């Protein structure tokens, strides 16, 4: 991730009016999310088989697109401007019609986007075989620099955090945890032009990725939302910067999430997730409510494995989806001491590996733990958010 700050003036034109209405999927992958997701599968390398002429490459691209999309990247990745890519220009026309946008503007904008050679590389799954390690993952996010920045952020935004807690029922420490893990409180919001990142991921997603077709479709949806909302807000799409996945602002919202869940929380009639901490705070809280956050419910409980062993196969089968009552977990050999035993809703047994040698950590995740994983689909991410928030709260004397 880049350490450069983006230019906040780029955002001044983003209007709150650019909001709601049904968009696309949530946000499976922003900053750390994108990495975590990408690392789950084996790495394969892409080898270009042939180097046909430009004309042939373009024809091949069109044919490959018709056949199913992702194969395009293999033959033409980065070598042909998007204005000369038939599938890109066809998509521009489709977007213009679907959202009543000027077709020339959409075409020109996509044509001006630049291929970012590092982006497909960043999306390529890492080598498999390295065991996941909660201790290592946690140490990246729950560390003194981030905790200190978190206390400053909390102090500077105490009123907005308290208001979000009251209005949405999402504890300040969860919001503080999210914004800290995502961007160290706005210090690392990404320095890629979002337009370039989304065009690259839409038209040159690495074909070797095991879910290339689905990811291509996802990023094309995000590109569509991005063009739509920047046009409506009168913002130059090339003025916005973000992660290599196209996530923006302090909470790293993807365009569809911005459209659906971002709110104006400082009352200036504009949504600015880059420059307004209050807008970022309200938007994160609103995102959680939309994804099932239950006010007052803990995120997780400690567990004790019964000495005679537990039916881990059954308990781990639903992964992080809460499906067992506390009694059902106990019947399968996993006890919840204290408050956990009386938890009224469904729970998930969550396993966090600690490398090949270490003992895994088990916890019982509630529906609120699951809600945090809707921000980024990883239990390691969710527990880091929770524990960073706890550490910041402790440093604040709360
Ligand atoms: Ca605002």
Summarize the structure.
The protein has 398 residues and is mainly alpha-helical. It folds into three domains: 74-115 and 190-246, Orthogonal Bundle (Helicase, Ruva Protein, domain 3); 128-189 and 248-292 and 379-397, Lysozyme, CATH 1.10.530; 300-365, no CATH class. Helices cover 47% and strands 5% of the residues.
How would you characterize this protein structure?
47% of the residues lie in helices and 5% in strands. It has 398 residues and is mostly helical. It has a three-stranded antiparallel sheet with strand order 3-7-6. The chain has a two-stranded antiparallel ribbon with strand order 1-2. A hairpin with an 8-residue loop joins strand 6 (348-352) and strand 7 (361-365). Helix 8 crosses helix 18, helix 9 (158-168) packs parallel to helix 14 (277-290) and helix 17 crosses helix 18 (379-395). The protein is globular and about 65 Å long. The chain starts with 30 loop residues before the first helix and ends with a helix. Bound molecules: calcium ion. The site of calcium ion has 8 residues, from loops.
Topology:
Elements: H1 31-38, H2 54-67, H3 72-76, H4 86-99, H5 103-112, H6 118-123, H7 134-141, H8 144-156, H9 158-168, H10 172-183, E1 192-193, H11 194-203, H12 212-233, E2 241-242, H13 255-261, H14 277-290, E3 300-302, E4 304-305, H15 312-316, H16 326-331, E5 334-335, E6 348-352, E7 361-365, H17 367-373, H18 379-395
Antiparallel strand pairs: 1-2, 3-7, 4-5, 6-7
Helix pairs in contact: 4-5, 7-18, 8-10, 8-18, 9-14, 10-14, 10-18, 11-12, 17-18
Bound molecules: calcium ion.
Calcium ion binds next to loops.
